[in-house]
Amino acid sequence: MVMGPTHAMSGAAIGLAMAATLPPEWGGPTSIAGAFVFAGVTAGAALLPDLDSPQATIARSFGPASQVLAHVTENAARAVYSATRTKRDSRKENGHRTATHTILFAVLAGLATGGLVAAFGMTASVGILFVMLGLALRGLFPRWAKKNGWLIVTGASAILAWGTWRLLPESASAIALGASVTVGVLAHLLGDVITKRGVPMLAPLVKISGKRWYDVRPPEILRIRASGPFDKLLLTACTVAVVVLTYLIVFDPARIGVAWA
Ligand SMILES: [Zn+2]
User: What's the pTM value of the predicted model, to 2 decimals?
Assistant: First the structure.
């Protein structure tokens, strides 16, 4: 797998690109500040699939609570895998890179997010923003987060979540949050698919070569070794993309065909 910061940064880059292209009916933002909230949630959601791995960044993000959640997710993912695998899918001792690494999960996570906000309003909006933006801060600024400790990071996430709900209600809507969560999870899959083992992104709906959990991956030459030099290169490329997109979104939106309200 690629490292947490790379996933978060690729989520931010893809989130900014989507913020500039997604129409408002599909949850796309209508203001510059809204574009950054969208990308912030996407960056956080880009860490979600690795909740199936108790060793991952995300599982350590919120202390023991996220550790417990990671173990529950890992077991649930393995249960889904075991219940749906064919004879050709190998037996698995843990659930990493199974159920949460599928397009189906990306869609369901977005729908669940939208559903929670539609049902519980402000409480759900602020709660989801708090978790996603907190993850984004940890993923995008790992050194800052480590230096300041979890209290500061948690406080900053709470202020950002509350401020977004108060000042940018359209960015905290069911459709906007649902869309950005789905985009974030898809960004994670894209990051994992170019690494060695690939991901079963079409599982369990599409059967390939008799397998329901076929690992989709590119030709060997394009595969990237996790946390090797290519991972750093990918992180750098995503950071450059974030800087360029930030410039375009703020200073030259006409160039990318955007007219902020
Ligand atoms: Zn992953």
Answer: 0.94
